[in-house]
Amino acid sequence: SERLGYFPAGIRSRLEEGIRRLHKLAGNALTDNMHIVFADGSTPLLSLVTMILQSSSKGLPLKVWARKPFYSGYSSLSFGDLVKFVGQEENETAAAADESLVEFVTSPNNPDGEIRSPVLSRPLTVFDKAYSWPMYTFMDEPFNSSAHPLSLWTLSKVTGHASSRVGWAIVGDKALADAMQMLACPIGCPMESQMVAISAIEHVLQTEGEIFKWGRAKFTERWRKIEDGFRNASCYRIRNPLAQGFDRFSQKVYKQTPPYLWMECLNLPAQKSCGDMLRSFGIKCRDGEYFGMPPSYARLSLYVATPVFDVLMQKLTNMFATTC
Amino acid sequence: SERLGYFPAGIRSRLEEGIRRLHKLAGNALTDNMHIVFADGSTPLLSLVTMILQSSSKGLPLKVWARKPFYSGYSSLSFGDLVKFVGQEENETAAAADESLVEFVTSPNNPDGEIRSPVLSRPLTVFDKAYSWPMYTFMDEPFNSSAHPLSLWTLSKVTGHASSRVGWAIVGDKALADAMQMLACPIGCPMESQMVAISAIEHVLQTEGEIFKWGRAKFTERWRKIEDGFRNASCYRIRNPLAQGFDRFSQKVYKQTPPYLWMECLNLPAQKSCGDMLRSFGIKCRDGEYFGMPPSYARLSLYVATPVFDVLMQKLTNMFATTC
């Protein structure tokens, strides 16, 4: 019954401690003197952050902007007359002129894995750091939470526990952190999902990041196959930057292994999108337009089991051979 | 891994089915042709409902009102310039004149257990039905969800699993239900807490509501002791209505056994509240002012283990004997 009541003792504090140590192990964020806000995943954090910024802004609606290609989920941040996502409508120049607009910086970016910095200079920028983990990219300097005091994180992209809905924000300002926590899990997040998160995170800590190494090995192997496959496909191009940089986690240079393949189809038949082409070969994807890009772009998820990935490569190879 | 991904198969539908059957067993709400929206507890539902109503209202702020004594938690619905809870400021006449204001009807009411109907006639009223379960009150007609298409419910007051954060709304309008679900658990509620809720609810169903009978027996015994104790306390009064009515669950008349004692202190020393008096005898309580009432009122929680309740009764008896 100690765990039945509203605030089961020791759960939240243990999860918070685990998360701070996890960031230290991965080397992806400084958390000293920062507040941790918990929510049921990072998706609710995205919308409640816009609500809070809206409630203290003067104009209606609050405009939210991200550079293209942007995460397709941001379009659902638009909410009544209160919040409007304008990533599609406004280019960088227009956004820069829009004084009250808030920039979302996804880094590494979804869909392409690009390492990004803010384009606009605003007092507060929202950093979506979902993919800033060693299995996806090199870890150079840890994210400077003091300089950028609002970043959003999710367990789903670290340990895979998407259905447990565990997200958190690293927040510098106490008043903002309190306001966020009042909207996200105001009476604590579900105890059971916190316990699963504690188990998963403490396992990562105890094994000194074995899952990071495993994920890197898996994704490195997959990207080798992807790059091999695209090498002779003259009508299809990988559009991920696949940057490399010195990686403090392994103490050597690491080339990015993002979880999504972001690609372009060249010489498409009229009226046909890259997504149409892929789907006609039985390949699941999300069309470029969801990310603010032309229909010649598409995103393929690499969050699949190995047998599924192998079939995906066969289908791509077949498409390359048949249409190019 | 089938349960690791975003939408684990069969979980949400099984919980929803359990909840519809639970309402049927308790006889407290009709759910046919109604949509169920899930959230992490009913507290987030309260605020997201006001956000959605605000986003489609013309004026700023959206005013939310409830008749006194009102649930103390409603004051935290106030949010920036967007939403303002005016239960404290506006009496019934003022509220009735405020055309765009939204009424919250808590029935049975917190703090006193009163069975309530809307005071204002508005197109949409929000019903907070947290305490509409057989352990707290008689079950006459099931709540007519078609006539009142927005009611909020929580597992914490049925099976006690407060820390699992499982709340739901019964909603008539599909568009409103979709808008609510977009803000509450947009990618599903945490799987683990849903599984705990499924286990708990299916147990209640399999035992044909044994917990309702157990809860009634417990609370009936406690209220007998409370009423006995107050009988000779001329300076203290029970302020719960403790109504009785025909109960379809047991097929006989049942007198309410609410989970909170709502009381008034008479002949208080100057500058002293009822809460001060209670606390000076070591009794935990919440002051009447949180519920929009004078400081001569206070609410005591009966959600305590039996030994704690027995000590509470001793302390009350001591206070009655010493101060009256």
Summarize the model shown:
2 copies of one chain form a homodimer. With 324 residues, chain A is an alpha/beta fold.
Description of the structure:
- The structure is a homodimer of 324-residue chains.
- The first copy, chain A, has 324 residues and is of the alpha/beta class.
- The first copy, chain A, has helices spanning 11-26, 42-55, 92-97, 174-183, 191-206, 210-231, 274-280, 306-323; strands at 35-39, 62-65, 83-85, 102-106, 126-128, 150-154, 167-171, 236-238, 244-247, 252-255, 260-265, 286-287, 297-301.
- Chain A folds into 2 domains: 11-206, Aspartate Aminotransferase, domain 2 (3-Layer(aba) Sandwich); 210-323, Aspartate Aminotransferase, domain 1, CATH 3.90.1150.10.
- The first copy, chain A, is built from 8 helices and 13 strands.
- The radius of gyration of chain A is 20 Å and the shape is globular.
- The A-B interface holds A 1, 3-8, 11, 40-41, 43-44, 47, 51-52, 54-56, 76, 79-82, 156, 160-166, 182-183, 185-193, 195-196, 305 and B 1, 3-8, 11, 40-41, 43-44, 47, 51-52, 54-56, 76, 79-82, 156, 160-166, 182-183, 185-193, 195-196, 305.
Helices, strands, pairings?
The structure is a homodimer of 324-residue chains.
Chain A: H1 11-26, E1 35-39, H2 42-55, E2 62-65, E3 83-85, H3 92-97, E4 102-106, E5 126-128, E6 150-154, E7 167-171, H4 174-183, H5 191-206, H6 210-231, E8 236-238, E9 244-247, E10 252-255, E11 260-265, H7 274-280, E12 286-287, E13 297-301, H8 306-323
Parallel strand pairs in A: 2-3, 2-4, 4-5, 5-6
Antiparallel strand pairs in A: 1-7, 6-7, 8-11, 9-10, 11-13, 12-13
InterPro entries (chains A, B): Alliinase_C, Ethylene_sulfur-biosynth, PyrdxlP-dep_Trfase, PyrdxlP-dep_Trfase_major, PyrdxlP-dep_Trfase_small
GO biological process, one term (chains A, B): amino acid metabolic process
Keywords (chains A, B): Pyridoxal phosphate
